Amino acid sequence: MARLPRACPVDIPQHVIQRGNNRQVCFASEQDFVAYAHWLLEYSVKYHVEIHAWVMMTNHVHLLCTPRTANAVSEMMQAVGRNYVRYFNFSYKRSGTLWEGRFKSCLVQEEGYLLQLYRYIELNPVRAGMVEQPSDYVWSSYQINALGKESALCTPHPLYLALGSDPASRQAGYRDLFKYHVENQLLADIRLATNKGMALGNGRFEVEVASLTGRRMTANKVGRPVGWRKKSEE
Length: 234
Description:
Blueprint: E1 14-19, H1 30-46, E2 49-56, E3 60-67, H2 72-91, E4 104-108, H3 114-122, H4 124-127, H5 142-147, H6 158-161, H7 167-176, H8 184-196, E5 199-200, H9 203-213, H10 228-233
Helix pairs in contact: 1-2
Keywords: Plasmid
Protein name: Transposase
GO biological process, one term: DNA transposition
């Protein structure tokens, strides 16, 4: 059966994960990170995708982005993936696939959830034990969003801009978000929504997205349906 095309409503933020096949390394040197960032910038501009936050780990990538045209995220990820695999295979004298099938993604409610995704993404290296502070990791957007480092790749989301009236106050407000780690329940919700291609938000947002896309945006309940035993005994 053919796979359904992705739900990619214009102007709704998405959390995207692209993993290496079998969790294999897909960034083995500093030049690899540079190459991936180069194509991500090129194709985010070409396909009109605003990138708000990112982290490039050794075997996967997280993005928080907003498409401004239809199907833009898929087109961007396909173009980046093709070019990077060609580069990686040539550089390391290998052949075959690099990525774990299609990328995973979820639609994100702005209110109450979007800034949490910023934190979730940029705290990845800390949760992985690679660094003690997110500022210590170069290949994420934390130094841009929290410390004011310049980057053509980063487009601030309006909720980020609302953190302060000027760059210094916004960066200070943003750093305050990182005083605490992401709560376990929120971690679980983010991972479930992304892996299942659902919506991350409250019930109203899930209903709105389901109506907009024509797809179920909540997980099926685990276990047998209510009343199954009674029906089986009739």
